Structures are given as C-alpha cells and as structure tokens.
C-alpha cells in the first residue's frame, strides 16, 4: 500500500478514540490526548531547513495531522516529538564502531546499512526508557520512505527495523491492541472487525483454503485476538509437525481436551527440556484449569506408548483402522485410510480447525510429515466443501535397496538380518522362530530394543555362544510377515544356522543376513547370506564371504551369485544388486518409516548360531566401564 492511500487523520482519530489505560497502569485517566494539533506547512519546512533534508513522505503527513504522539511502548519509546523537537542522533554512544567491528569479510547489505545508521539517523523520541526511535535517510525505498529503527539501549539487542514511519506507527497501534486484548472491556470497532475476520479465516481453513487464511490470522494475532493465535498455531503445527505450540487455555475446555492435551504433554513425554521440568508444566496447566489427574494420566500413557488418539464418529473408526495397519508396518496404507476419511472429521468446537490430536498418537503421529500436514490442511472437512488436494506420494520406497542408503539422522541399514514368511500372520512368528514361551511385546521403538536386551551372560539358561536377536515384527505391502533386526551389530558367524526352515511351517520363508564389508574395510570379513525354505525344508541357500560363494539347492536364476557379486565391482554393489533381485524375484520389501521412526512389536528369536561341534571353539567378549 502506498502512502497516498493512507488517511492519517482517520487512523490517529481511531487510535485516540479507542485508547484506554495500559492494563498495568495506575491512576491514569482514560481520555488523555495522544497527539497534538498538526504542524502547519511553515513549521515542517522550517524543521527541514534546520536539518538540511526533506523529511520522508509518511512522516511529513503525520506531522501535518499530529505534531507528536504518545506511543506508550512499554520499556521503550513513550513519546514522539513534533517538528520543532526532532534532531540528528549523532551516535552519542559510539555504536558505529561497535557494529563496524561485527561486519566480517563479506557483510550483507542490511548489515552495512545498520552499521552506518547511527551517525546519519534522525532522532524522533522525546521521552523513552533508554531507547531511541531513529529514522535512517540512508535506508530508503522507492517511495522515498526512510526505515525507522527502534533501539532499546538496555536490551543489548539489534534494533528493530520498520520499513517506514507509517509501518512503525501501524505496528505500535497493533501493539496497543495486543496489550489490551485480554481485557473484556476492551471492545471497539477494530476488535469486532478483527474477530469477524478470524471467523472468516476459520471457514476458509475448514474449506482447505488455509493459505488464504494464514495472512488474515497473522494480522488478527498481531492485534492480540486470541482466536487468531490459536487457529494460526494449528496451521503452523501441521505444517511443521515436530514443533510444540502452546494451545493456552484450550486444553482446559472439555470439548478440546482429547485433541489438545496430549499434544501439549508430548514434549515432556519425549524428555525434551522445559523450564522447571514436569512440575512447572503440571503447575501451569493446573492453573489453567486442567485437572491434575488428567495431566498425569496423559503424560504417563504417552511415556509408556499406550496413548491412543480416539476421536468419535466415522473419523474415529478410520483412525482405529489406520492404527491397525500402522502397527504392523504398512504406514502408507494407514495414511491412505486417514486421507480418505479426513472430510469426515468434525470440529468439537469453533476453536479447532484440524485433527491435531493425531500428532500425539505414538503410531499415527509419525505418519504426518510436513507435506502430509499440508494435505490435511488442504482437505475440506467438518462439513465444509471444496476441491480435494493432490495426494502426497507414498513415503516407503519399494523393495530393499533403501536399506543401504542413509536415512534421516542415522546411518544406512546395510548391516541387518531378516526373516520373511509369505502370507503369514505376523503374530505367528514368535511361535515359529521365537525362544520358548516368547510372545509379542507392545509397540516399541525398534531402534532401542537391541541395546536394551539382556546379553547372554545376563540370562539364565542361555549359552554364551548363542546369538538370540530381538526383532521388530510386521507385514510388508506384499503380505509377507517379517522379523527384522537392524540395530544389534551382530556378525554372520561360520556357525550360522538359518531360521528359514523353522519359519516355513506357515508358508514359504526367506532369511537374509547382510554383514557389510564397510564395517571392516579391506579385511574381507563382510558376508551375505540368503536361504529359502518351504514346508520345513530348506530349498536353497547362498553365502558369500569376500570373493568366495557357497551355494546349495537350486537358486532362482535372478539370484545366481555370478550375476550378483561380480569381481570387478565393490562388494557393496553386489549387496545392492542382490537386494534388487530379492524384490524382483520374490517380492520382498520392508517398510522404511515403520523401521526408522515408528513403533513395532518385538520378540526374541532362538539362536541364529548353532552349538559348537566337537573340536570347535568360540569366544565371547563383553566390555564394562568402571569409574575411577
């Protein structure tokens, strides 16, 4: 908006008419004048002659309407002077030298402007709290407007920059509203107009037009309108699911508590640092009206992984169906269930515009990436209509090669072992290859199971030579049940015993162990094993160690070691080629998101190594750290 379209008289009159004392002020009258009569043209020209410069347009127009103003910016600027009061700042505190020292070898244009601002700026304030309002003639735009910097001398912070005097005054007006927004008596035409815009933005958001709603809500929040803040926080939360917004008093409302309270408790449940720890957070939420018992229950269920997002109605039934899919690994299928049901979500009240409670669910929350969060926001819901967004692509790559590629925040999975059973119920795997009496655990983070599991020397009845794996259990998109261990760092031993035969009692079974060469570069200790079994009998197997390949049975042509592990290739290339062949020939895959970010059920297998035969030896190492 250009300065020509702005009416200073209407703007300042509205500010004056709406003025009430600051909430913390005592003994102030409600009708004090904020401004002064406007300066005549001669006074403005005289000021410009005295200063030797023509003032920027929006400031000249302001002076003609009001020759000064009570800004009342807490702990900063209190009053702006008139035409006769303004003067050059002159850098009395030697700030130029300080900022020039910080420029570095390749400073930005903004940094250079700021460093030079102190000596050339025009000082506007006449009353302040060790602060200055500085107009910089060296920082100007195409309309001839000078940037205005507010320097709070007591803060030690970089000055706040406003692109013009008008922008500064508009910001101060918004701040005036924001400071008084919590008072029920502070109601005027501006507050009513902003609240009406919030309601309009709410309807836009529910129609999937959240991008149009955002600037409206940002403006309302700048005026301190609570509806603007809480709706905007939901949009930004779904656009960045890893953040932790504070939904304020919304959690104390029984209508919103099931959606909002778990989201508020999630950072504490994850162990994120909060000032004062759990006690401070619990105290804050209790003071807002949330029952202490509800707080402790939600916090406990989030920490032990038993929390369930369970909204009512058709949306709730879809959530339950999606969770059943996600708990076995097919997270893309789970997301498709949620995507189809999103239009059925109903808002429990006007302050909620999206199913944010989904983000706190231990199984379903990880499905919501920033891209999927935007998909939620772009989907019409709660009875509103509009075009459906383009579906976000699936997250899980096909096949197995992704195991050899780095995953966010962790190394690749190129060292792993896995058993697949075709068409089997994953819940049957403990009975097929688990240790005696083993049952599935509840959903847990697969990344932590191996290092938490007891070692052989810590378990009664377990021989030191045994290699029992804690495996994550699930189902692939192609309906193979799997048991996967990618975190134990176990090595493929010469006494390896394939679990494929035992697993094949329920259908064709495949066992793969990839022990990568990269663990010990150049020493030839890497290995790759594949075995296929059916009806309790091993049909074929392949074990590759360095340049040596040992085969048994009739391997499928696609798995011929001569085709996979070529002498001219690096060994890692052979592993990738073998993983591609396993997907092509047998339809094997693994769900990346479930194995790297979600929770799966686990169990402990029987030993993957056999007992030493007569004349064979073995070694068992364990390391202990003792404090001096």
Walkthrough of the structure:
The chain has 21 helices and 17 strands. The protein has helices at residues 8-18, 41-51, 57-65, 95-101, 109-120, 165-180, 189-206, 210-222, 226-239, 257-269, 277-287, 292-303, 313-326, 331-341, 370-377, 429-433, 446-452, 500-503, 561-564, 571-586, 592-596; strands at residues 69-70, 77-80, 87-88, 122-123, 125-128, 131-140, 146-152, 160-162, 416-422, 444-445, 468-475, 480-485, 509-515, 527-534, 537-545, 548-553, 599-607. The strands form three sheets. The protein has a nine-stranded antiparallel β-sheet. A five-stranded antiparallel β-sheet has the order 3-4-6-7-8. Helix 4 (95-101) packs antiparallel against helix 5 and helix 13 (313-326) packs antiparallel against helix 14. The radius of gyration is 34 Å and the shape is elongated.
Q: What are the SSEs and their pairings?
A:
Blueprint lengths: L7 H11 L22 H11 L5 H9 L3 E2 L6 E4 L6 E2 L6 H7 L7 H12 L1 E2 L1 E4 L2 E10 L5 E7 L7 E3 L2 H16 L8 H18 L3 H13 L3 H14 L17 H13 L7 H11 L4 H12 L9 H14 L4 H11 L28 H8 L38 E7 L6 H5 L10 E2 H7 L15 E8 L4 E6 L14 H4 L5 E7 L11 E8 L2 E9 L2 E6 L7 H4 L6 H16 L5 H5 L2 E9 L21
Antiparallel strand pairs: 1-2, 2-5, 3-4, 4-6, 6-7, 7-8, 9-12, 9-13, 10-17, 11-12, 11-17, 13-14, 14-15, 15-16
């Amino acid at each position: 908006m250009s300065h020509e379209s702005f009416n200073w008289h209407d703007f300042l009159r509205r500010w004056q008419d709406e003025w009430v004392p600051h909430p913390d002020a005592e003994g102030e009258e409600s009708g004090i004048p904020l401004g002064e009569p406007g300066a005549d043209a001669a006074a403005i020209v005289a000021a410009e002659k005295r200063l030797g410069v023509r003032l920027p347009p929006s400031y000249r127009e302001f002076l003609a309407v009001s020759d000064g103003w009570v800004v009342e910016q807490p702990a900063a600027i209190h009053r702006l002077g008139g035409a006769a009061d303004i003067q050059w700042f002159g850098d009395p505190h030697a700030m130029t030298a300080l900022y020039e020292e910080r420029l570095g070898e390749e400073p930005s244009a903004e940094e250079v402007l700021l460093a030079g601002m102190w000596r050339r700026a025009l000082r506007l304030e006449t009353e302040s709290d060790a602060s200055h309002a500085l107009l910089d003639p060296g920082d100007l735009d195409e309309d001839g407007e000078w940037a205005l910097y507010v320097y709070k001398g007591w803060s030690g912070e970089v000055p706040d920059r406003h692109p013009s005097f008008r922008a500064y005054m508009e910001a101060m007006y918004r701040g005036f509203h924001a400071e008084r927004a919590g008072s029920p008596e502070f109601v005027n035409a501006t507050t009513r107009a902003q609240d009406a815009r919030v309601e309009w933005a709410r309807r836009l958001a529910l129609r999937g037009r959240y991008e149009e709603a955002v600037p409206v809500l940002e403006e309302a929040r700048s005026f301190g309108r609570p509806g603007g803040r809480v709706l905007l926080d939901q949009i930004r939360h779904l656009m960045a699911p890893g953040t932790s917004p504070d939904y304020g008093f919304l959690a104390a409302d029984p209508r919103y508590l099931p959606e909002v309270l778990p989201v508020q408790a999630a950072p504490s449940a994850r162990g994120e640092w909060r000032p004062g720890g759990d006690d401070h957070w619990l105290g804050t939420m209790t003071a807002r009206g949330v029952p202490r018992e509800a707080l402790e229950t939600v916090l406990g269920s989030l920490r032990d992984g038993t929390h369930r997002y369970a909204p009512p109605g058709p949306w709730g039934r879809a959530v339950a169906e999606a969770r059943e899919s996600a708990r076995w690994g097919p997270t893309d299928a789970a997301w498709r269930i949620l995507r189809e049901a999103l239009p059925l979500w109903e808002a429990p009240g006007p302050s909620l515009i999206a199913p944010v409670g989904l983000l706190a669910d231990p199984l379903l929350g990880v499905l919501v990436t920033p891209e999927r969060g935007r998909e939620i926001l772009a989907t019409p819901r709660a009875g509103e209509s509009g075009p459906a967004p383009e579906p976000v692509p699936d997250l899980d790559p096909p096949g197995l090669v992704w195991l050899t590629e780095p995953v966010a925040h962790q190394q690749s999975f190129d060292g792993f072992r896995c058993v697949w059973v075709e068409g089997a119920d994953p819940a049957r795997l403990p009975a097929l290859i688990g240790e005696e009496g083993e049952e599935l655990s509840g959903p847990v983070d697969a990344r932590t199971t191996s290092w938490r599991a007891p070692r052989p020397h810590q378990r009664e009845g377990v021989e030191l030579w045994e290699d029992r794996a804690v495996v994550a259990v699930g189902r692939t998109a192609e309906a193979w049940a799997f048991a996967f261990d990618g975190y134990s760092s176990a090595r493929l031993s010469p006494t390896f015993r394939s679990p494929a035969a035992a697993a094949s009692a329920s259908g064709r079974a495949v066992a793969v162990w990839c022990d990568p060469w990269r663990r010990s570069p150049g020493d030839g200790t890497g290995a790759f094993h594949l075995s296929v079994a059916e009806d309790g009998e091993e049909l074929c197997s392949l074990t590759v160690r360095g340049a040596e390949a040992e085969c048994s049975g009739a391997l499928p042509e696609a798995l011929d070691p001569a085709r996979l592990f070529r002498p001219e290739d690096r060994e890692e290339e052979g592993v990738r080629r073998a993983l591609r062949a396993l997907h092509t020939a047998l339809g094997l895959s693994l769900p990346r998101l479930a194995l790297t970010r979600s929770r799966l059920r686990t169990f402990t297998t029987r030993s993957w190594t056999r007992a030493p035969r007569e004349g064979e030896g073995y070694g068992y190492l364990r390391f202990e750290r003792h404090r001096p």
